[in-house]
Amino acid sequence: MYFKKSISPSFLPLLLLMLVAGSEAGGIAIYWGQNGNEGTLADTCATGNYQHVILAFLSSFGNGQKPMLNLAGHCDPYSNGCTKLSSEIKSCQAKGIKVLLSIGGGAGGYSLVSTADARQLAVYLWNNFLGGKSSSRPLGEAILDGIDFDIETGNSQHWDELAKFIYGYSKRGKKVYLTAAPQCPFPDASVGGALKTGLFDYVWVQFYNNPPCQYTSGDVASLEDSWKTWTSSIPATKIYLGLPAAPDAAGSGFIPVADLTSAVLPAIKGSTKYGGVMLWSKYYDDQTNYSSNIKNHV
Ligand SMILES: *[C@@H]1O[C@H](CO)[C@@H](O)[C@H](O)[C@H]1NC(C)=O
């Protein structure tokens, strides 16, 4: 890069500052959907704290099951009660926020048993949540920005095929984002193979509930080692530091704001793959204001 002589030298420091800030600035991704007392989707987007909102979860699918959404107390998908979210999804997107659907979750109740099963789920997701058509779209006509894999069953089969099938739909116009929330032990037992495809845009690694690779008070080494493994091994566009937004949000791995900003973020932000912080979840973020307290540091 060079600067033409016509650029005033007094503008250079500002320009350099902007470039530096631009290369390091991260975003915050938040999971929403598993607690009816966490505010609406529209409220969530209106905070201005998040660049990605991940709807949790499509919790049943595969092996012959009818795919079913579970958004806890927010709405009842069985009586088609979640279509009201369509206008909220569009208002989030109008603010530049990407809204994704997470498939899976910690409760189980899902699996992929064959290549045909993976293909069938991809077709279902396209027709019911993405750019396709169906008479029974659970979230109405809004077109989501992509699909998040939060697969915690420990079965690694066919998720790579699902990723390839979903990725194929990007050729039909609007890009379909692929994201994933693996656990920090590397490689992930469920989506480790899928992540190797290189098709994922954002990977929010769960650095919690996993003591060998998470932060423990005053000791950033385990997390930093794990971060280096993830960022050097996974061909995703960006890697995020996935964290609980409150001590109660996970069994272990909560990082106090002061520790995050003074020790943890400085250890990982130098990576070109650094994308920001993912939080579980909006409900817990409301309890602590974690996102508000960290957003100027991510
Ligand atoms: C979070 O922010 C809200 C609004 O500013 C405030 O009322 C609340 O006390 C804060 N909660 C915590 C735990 O800091």
Automatic annotation (TrEMBL):
Signal peptide: 1-25
Keyword presence, Disulfide bond: yes
Reaction equations catalysed: Random endo-hydrolysis of N-acetyl-beta-D-glucosaminide (1->4)-beta-linkages in chitin and chitodextrins
One Pfam family of this chain: Glyco_hydro_18
Top enzyme category: hydrolase
Catalytic activity, EC: 3.2.1.14
Coiled-coil annotated spans: none
Record key words, sorted: Carbohydrate metabolism, Chitin degradation, Disulfide bond, Glycosidase, Hydrolase, Polysaccharide degradation, Signal
PROSITE patterns (UniProt xref): GH18_1 (PS01095), GH18_2 (PS51910)
Gene3D superfamilies registered for this protein in UniProt: Glycosidases
UniProt keyword annotation of tRNA-binding present: no
Source superkingdom: Eukaryota
GH18 domain sequence ranges: 26-298
Entry's transmembrane regions: none
Family under the similarity heading: Belongs to the glycosyl hydrolase 18 family.
Protein's name according to its UniProt entry: chitinase
Native organism: Penstemon smallii
Lineage: Eukaryota, Viridiplantae, Streptophyta, Embryophyta, Tracheophyta
